[in-house]
Structure formats: C-alpha cells, structure tokens
Amino acid sequence: MAATEIDAWLYGSRIARFTSRRTANSVPRADLVWDPGAADRWGYGSRILSHLLPIEQDSPPSPARASAWLDGLMPEGRVRDNMAMEAGVDPEDAVGFFGAYGGDTVGALEFVAADFSPRRHPQEPVLLDDDGVGALLRETLARAGGQGRSQHLTSSLPGMEPKIGLVHADGTWSRASPDQPTTHILKVARAADSPTADLVDTEAAALDLARRIGLTTIDARVETFDDMRCIVVSRYDRVPDADAPGGLRRIHQEDAAQALGINTRDPERKFQHGRALPSLARIAQVLRDDGARPDPLLALTALNLAVGNTDAHAKNISMLRRQDGTVALAPAYDVSMHLHHSHASRVFAMDVAGERDMDAITGAHLVAEGVAWGLPRRRAARVVTRTLDDLRAALGEIDRDMHPGVPVEAWRTVVDRTDTLRRAVD
Predict the structure, then answer these.
(1) Which residue pairs from 114-122 have beta carbons closer than 8 angstroms and sit at least 24 positions apart in sequence?
(2) Full DSSP string of 361-420
(3) pLDDT value of position 310
(4) What is the pLDDT of residue 251?
(5) What gap in Å lies between CA 424 and CA 303, rounded to an integer?
(6) Residue 264: left (phi > 0), alpha (psi -120 to 50), or beta?
(7) Domains contained in the chain, CATH given
C-alpha cells in the first residue's frame, strides 16, 4: 500500500511531514506541516529546505507549492512511471513515491514512514562485479523505454536520461541498501549508431574543463561495464565523513526550477524560451536573497555558452543549502558539447540579455545580463573575461587523449566559440 504520510529528515533532525491527499478531481496533492522543532533549530523564515518553502509554522505553504517542490525531486518520463509502477504507487503521487524511494534522494533529505527515524546503521551494500553493474544499466535502459521490471533501484534521481546511483568504495562497486547514500551516478550512453552517441564523452570532457577552471568538483569518466557504456560522475552532494552513517555526509541542494516553484511535469517548462520564468535573472535573485553572490552563475553561463551546451535549463542549475545555513551555487553538472552536430538545436535554454540564439549571443550579451542582475559593469566583465580566459587556457592544457570519444570537430567548435565570446567582451 502506498504511503500517505512521510517524514522528511534533514541534517539529522525531522523538519517536516508530507501528507498525500486527493483533490476533487482525484489529483494527488502534498500537504506540508513543519515539525515543531524546525523553527527552533533553523530559525523562523529559514530557507534551509527550499527558497520556495520558508519555515513558517503558523503559515504552512500551499499544497500547490509543496507539491511542485516535491515533484521536482522525482525522475521524469518513463523512468518515473515505471519506478512508480514497480512500487505500486500512482506516478503523480509524490508522497507515495518517496515512501518507496525516499532513502537516497538528490541532496540531503531522507524520507521515512511517519513517526520513524532514518536508520543510522544501514544494511551492508550488495557487491557488484562488471557484469552486475552492466545488468543494472540494462535494466534502467529497459525501464526508460517502458519495458522491464525490477526491484534493484533504491535511489531517486531526477532527469530524463537512464541512470543509476551506486556506491564506489575501495575500488569496488556495490548496490546501496534502501537507506544508504550512493556516491556515484552512472548514466547510460546512447546507442553507437545514434547521432548523439558521443554525448557522454563530451560531458566528461566538459566537466574536466569545468573542474580545471574551478566551476565544479565533479570527477567524470566514461567506462564500460559488460559492453554497457556510461558516464560515471561523482556526487557533489555526498562528502566523505567517518562519523556519518555509511561514511558519507549528505549535503542538501535544490534545483532552480524547485526554488522558483516551477512544476516541470511538462519537460518543456525547464526551459525559458521567451517566458518570464525560468530566467537567469530570477535565479540570480534567489542566490542574492539567500545571501550568496550571483557571480558564479554568470561564470557558469559563460562556460555553457562556450562549450555549446544547449541543455543548461533550470533543473541543470542548482543551489547548495548547507547545514550552517549558507547557500552557494552548486558545482556544474550535466554540461555537454552539442553544437558540433549539424542537427543540434541552436537555441540556448535561457535567454541572455533577451537573446536565445546561440550563434547571436556574444560576450557583450553576457556582461549585459550580469548588469541586469545588479552587478557593476566592470565586475560582470571581469567575471566573463576571467572565465573565458581560464577556459581557453584549460583547452590548451587538457589531455585530449583522455577523452578519445570526443570528435575533433567538438574541440574545434569549443575553441572557436570561446575565442568569439571573448573578443566581444572588451
């Protein structure tokens, strides 16, 4: 039976209870009630859980807000539908979904049955050899295609691409127990005959570049398990900590769509494409409202434009919400090179100073966008210039032999775009 109530735990204490109910049209909705101790620990009005959901015990958020935010933690598309089916819950019922898959979410939240607490001594993980990892990748690929059933997945990972969360420790892979945090995400590569078969390769290369210029902490590489190619990325919301359960400390985060209250059940809503929301300006305002500088967001936007990442939508931009209450832009993730493909869209996910054509956006547009957020022009120009100069240096230093799946055309496109953007800043 699907759960109708779940408790949300954050950084070692219960913060809220989510209760499922149905509207007159039988649509599932989630009511949120703050734990009596939440304001005592975090402060009245604290946004430790979400920018959208400040802790106000005398004024709980509307079910529409709570539902949209909780829905944003769920997978998308057929992956979501099939995981819900396997758990025997309605795919629209986020409370029921996290009653089954709430032990390892994106960020630090742990969902448990009402009036229970998370287990501090997780079960031993199940060791996997290459064949075992490959089998799990095949299962998630089948699930994304609407086929196959299994009970192997324990993590809930947002997104459309088939992926799994696993634990990597002491050189071995293992499947986490339901309440154990995973350390890495493995995303399945597209078929060899696909026009975007190199997507995982260019993502690993783009994240390598981002790491070299200080915009991410993620390690990424392409691996093959029993003939299943995938990109393996370390989770930035998991930090080794010998005193934490399972030896990992969870760091809370939310993506920009959640922070802005955008329900992305329609995947197109992740993109701006001329709408008022989402927008870079509103994301910058969220950072500012929560005490963080928006400069890294401008640097991330410059990187996305330079590498030709058309997919930099609101769910691919996130904020860390740390235990001490500070907020920061999350490390870059899901960054890839797209524009070396002739069939690729040339539309950027977000408008930059009113422009979304990636061939028309210049370094001057980037500076103007930063100025529109309230940054002094010299400061905005300095952020853009430094990012592009650092990226150009990284392109000269990176060992391209470590990324054999990245076509020469992709490297050339990134170099040309970086130089073109940089020339228009001055």
Answers:
(1) 114/3, 114/5, 114/6, 114/7, 114/17, 115/7, 116/7, 117/7, 117/9, 117/14, 118/9, 118/179, 118/245, 119/179, 119/245, 120/245, 121/245, 122/176, 122/177, 122/179, 122/180, 122/245, 122/246
(2) --HHHHHHHHHHTT--HHHHHHHHHHHHHHHHHHHHHS-GGG-TTS-HHHHHHHHHHHHH
(3) 97
(4) 97
(5) 15
(6) alpha
(7) 5-113 (no CATH), 126-234 (3.30.200), 251-260+271-423 (1.10.1070)
What mean pLDDT comes out for the span 399-424?
97
CB atoms near residue 425 (< 10 Å) = 19
Q: What is the pLDDT of residues 178-191, one digit of tens each?
A: 778 899 999 999 99
> Parallel, antiparallel, or unpaired: how do β-strands 347-352 and 220-225 relate?
unpaired
pLDDT band at 161 (very low <50, low <70, confident <90, very high): confident
Beta bridge partners of 255: 318
What CA–CA distance (Å, rounded) separates 379 from 300? 15
- Which phi and psi angles does 230 have, rounded to 5°? -160, 165
Q: Which CA distances in Å does 8 have to 31, 39, 143? A: 12, 15, 27
* Mean of per-residue pLDDT scores for the chain: 92
Q: How far apart are CA 47 and CA 56, in angstroms?
A: 10
Closest CA to 122 of 77, 174, 80: 174
**Mean pLDDT, range 358-385, rounded to an integer:** 98
The CA–CA distances, whole Å, from 361 to 33, 149, 312, 376, 422 equal: 45, 45, 15, 20, 12
Per the CB < 8 A criterion, the answer to whether 5 and 35 are in contact is no
Q: Quote the CA–CA distance of 203 and 212 in Å, as a whole number.
A: 14
What is the distance between the alpha carbons of residues 137 and 423, in angstroms, rounded to a whole number? Answer: 44
Task: Report the Cα 399 to chain-centroid distance in Å.
Answer: 27
Q: What is 53-74 written as a DSSP string?
A: S---TTSPPPHHHHHHHHHTTS
Output DSSP code: residue 140: H
Residues 384 and 305: beta-carbon distance below 8 Å: no
Question: Is 264's pLDDT higher than 90?
Answer: no
CA 55 to chain centroid, in Å, comes to: 23
pLDDT in tens, 197-212: 999 999 999 999 999 9
Give the predicted TM-score (pTM) of the model: 0.94
Number of Cβ atoms within 10 Å of the Cβ of 225: 21
Cα 307 versus chain centre, distance: 19
Nearest to 171 by CA among 180, 161, 183, 159: 183
CA distance 387 to 380: 11
Q: Give helix then strand counts, H and E, for the chain.
A: 12, 17
Average confidence (pLDDT) over 75-97: 86
